[in-house]
Amino acid sequence: MRAFNFSAGPATLPTEVMLEVQEQLLNWQNSGMSVMELSHRSPEFAGILNETELDLRDILALPDHYRIIFCQEGASAHWDMIPLNLLQGNHQADYIETGYWSYRAIEEGRRYCNINIAASNRIDHFSALPDRAEWRLNPKAAYVHYCSNETIDGLEFFWTPDVGNVPLVVDMSSHFLSRPMDITKFGMVYAGAQKNIGPAGLSLAIIREDLLKPAAPGTPFLMDYHGQFHAHSMLNTPPTFTIWVAGLVFKWIKRNGGLTQMAVRNAEKARLLYDFLDKSAFYRNSVKVQDRSLMNVPFHLREPALDEVFLKEAELSGLKQLRGHRVVGGMRASIYNAMPIEGVQALINFMADFERRYG
Ligand code: PMP
After folding, report:
1. pTM of the predicted model, to two decimals?
2. Last residue in a domain, options 229, 255, 281
3. Ligand 1: does its nearest atom lie under 6 Å from the Cβ of 76?
4. Are residues 216 and 126 in the same domain?
């Protein structure tokens, strides 16, 4: 029996997809071997890569002038690759600070250019997004970087900032494919795989064609988006198995009504959980209501001394990996696409019972 797994990533994958993987693990499409064992230069793998990309384009309704690169690096590596590829001789970039992950991008980006933190909600302890009217953007910046879903702090942008002609670059790692998104508002989108895409070991970069130029001199060749794009994401051996599983996840999304349906299910799951939290005096989520993430729901017990008991009892009830990130403590329920509504209901039932017993 599979547990309800609330990990922020690597996260739960659709059971249907896991069964397909199991079925084809030893003998992919009667080839007599596993996808893991296929040469990345074989026509079979070229077919897998091509189909995976086409399915993703279809899901996102992505126009042709947006190019997709499959990267072996995690989402963090893009904090270096973005300045190396997008500065193009400029020394200024704008960053928006809204939580832990956007801050990490800033720290890394400082190695390459002068960073203007155009807006920050640090003073509010990352509990509400800074209003667009407060952003102090530099019109000469090479790009504006932000993170549209803060996995740890539990904030999500439900609006896309208008930043004029400066390319907008977004880390969508933890809510990519969770609802329809208009990619054409961005110069570049990136996301690590291990949440809504597939197993760890892959990240995706979607880049507007005019921004794909050779990277700064001295850039390691694998970190050059332009080079990687022209090599069809195969400057070296790509994570073949992970790409295959990501492709199965994309087909699962398509079979299940695409992003429109993902959005309906995700909104319902999050509504149930936040409603429950708001009605309780025992649990608390301190993010401003309009900015609450539909994917990552951090919460605290009124009595932190009960945290360990909560986690232990939850685990025994088949509700796993609810421990909050070490920088914020408490709990966190990540309820990505693959988390069924039954998982959220089971969590709420457990929490209500725990409150009755300890509250
Ligand atoms: N950005 C966001 C929003 C994340 O949630 C994470 C990881 N949880 C990262 C970046 C870093 O990803 P990776 O570990 O794949 O480098």
Report:
1. 0.98
2. 255
3. yes
4. yes
